């Protein structure tokens, strides 16, 4: 059954208000939290707290209709239950599912927000914010993928001068790969890790090219129709 436009529009307007909040939490998680120099359990605890805030704001930002909201809430609840359940004495078995559920949640949120960004209409500030959010979510998603590979194949990455890579290290490697900077201080050596690194580098370039072309075409069409 079709949803009345009068119900959809308020939901979109409401969710747009949370885009800035979601973007703010992403900036804190990617740029501020790693600069604090936290280590060990402290790093993991604050990362989980920040991740929880990210998911809550992400659900609010990506929920433009009832179906999308249900999907986002479902994957978010699973990810949070696994993440916080792993802190319990009997929850050690959940550690192996922390990264996969996080990856799935980040992917679903990125798709939900990307659909809004690429939808027909004028390009607004919220469209640009959504595009930035998706780009940052791509970096976080690939970081979780690298973590999964390392968990299953220890030693998949060379150059860990300080021992095992941490949560912030994975994010660092992911974003320098996404932007094709590649400082070389961490190098993928396992075949799966190399494939993922190449995939992320291509994703970063193709996303920007396709996104720019789509936004420009949307603005041209909107202005033409406006005349």
Strand and helix map with partners:
Blueprint: H1 5-16, H2 19-32, H3 40-62, H4 66-85, H5 98-117, H6 125-152, E1 157-158, H7 167-178, E2 187-188, H8 191-226
Helix pairs in contact: 2-3, 2-6, 3-4, 3-5, 4-5, 5-6, 6-7, 6-8
General description of the model:
It is built from eight helices and two strands. It has 227 residues and is mainly alpha-helical. Helix 2 packs antiparallel against helix 3 and helix 2 crosses helix 6. The longest helix has 36 residues. The N terminus is likely disordered.
Briefly characterize the structure.
The protein is an all-alpha fold. The protein has 8 helices and 2 strands.
Question: What are its keywords?
Answer:
single chain, globular, Helix Hairpins, two-stranded antiparallel ribbon, mainly alpha, 227 residues
Shape: globular
- What name is given to the CATH topology? Helix Hairpins
Number of domains: 1
Trace the largest sheet across and list its strands. 1-2
Uncertain residue segments: 1-13
Structural class: mainly alpha
* CATH architecture level-2 label: Orthogonal Bundle
- Give the radius of gyration: 19 Å
Mean pLDDT: 87
Assigned CATH class: Mainly Alpha
Assess the beta-strand content as a share of residues: under 5%
Biggest sheet, open or closed, and with what strands and sense? 2 strands, antiparallel
Strand/helix succession: HHHHHHEHEH
The helix count comes to 8
Helix-residue proportion: over 70%
For the secondary structure, the number of strands is 2
Distance between the termini: 34 Å
